[in-house]
Amino acid sequence: MSAPSMFPTTVVGSLPRPEWLLEGISAFEEGSMTGAQLKEYYDEAVVLAIKQQELAGLDEVSDGEQRRFSFLAFVAERIPSFKLVPTAELMTRDAERYARSMNLHVGVISNPIIVGKIERTAPLVADEVRFAMERTQKPVMAPLIGPLTLLINSWNSRLSSGYYRAPEDAFGDLTRLLREEILALRDAGASFVQLDEPAVGNFVDFRYTKWLLALNGWKLGDLGELHRVASELVNRTVKGVTGIKVGVHICRGNWRSDELHYSHGGYEKMIGEILEMKVKRLVLEYATKRAGTYRVFKDNPWHGEIGLGVIDVKDPRVEAPREIVRRVEEASKVFGAENIVLNPDCGFASGRPWPVVTRQIAYAKLAAQTEAAKLLRKKYA
Ligand SMILES: [Zn+2]
User: 252 CA distance to ligand 1 centroid (A)?
Assistant: First the structure.
């Protein structure tokens, strides 16, 4: 089944896990459930997530990232070159200070730390996508961690320098790992690969990045360097890749907090890096007012597709379809209606322990997005 030619609808990836899945995971961790039983729970949760996306009328679906601890940490669940380390174990005095300033609940965060030479000894997500594809006629997109976000979370001076003396020494192996995964996703038949790069979104406000760098023992002088390498890492990752559409998703992170503690600011602070990225689609937050206006792209045109964030995933209020239509119409003047794909600002539960809204609200929002797309097609197609 192919997507409609105008205003196709999709997701950014994650969806809240059902309560029974979370209970199953706890039971497995406590030893009262076997790995085989837990796998059945995961399989059922993916089937349910797909069915609910179909009922919400989406043109393209994901597996809801049901099997992942988080959009980032899952790397360590699949590849032994990385080890999942609770950030509480990495804390330094500076990191404590930054975490406090953002009201960050570090107790629930674990990062995949590099503890060996990076090699793709197993699939990262291609097997997930293959499972999902066998259970739906709809195209299946694949969210995959982006190279900058993975690097700044995973290279730790204490634990990784024996394998890569400095972060830049890991560039080659890390981008090769992601490129090999993209090619496996292409071969599996995924419709779209989305590189998740909240680290680029955090260029609007370096508090979160400073926390991460303090945690991992990077020099703070490295902040300016991150701007320089953001597009370089993405371009090295997609170099030579053909036969599959690849995009970059930029947001400012997605955990439960109040608006005051999220970063604010438009894409002006990273527009140069964004325009250098050799990808087909940008998936951007735009429903939240914190993401600024479209003006920056009026002055600096992007000549590709736009995955336009039309749903505020952190606001429990379900948007009215007409409100979404207005957002798209305004964006069309800058990006061109033919380039717009409708999606929420981010995933609805980018980490297992921190869904931002309930499952019911998430699916109601996706259904509103579908209604908006229908109204738009009626008007413009
Ligand atoms: Zn996001």
Answer: 7
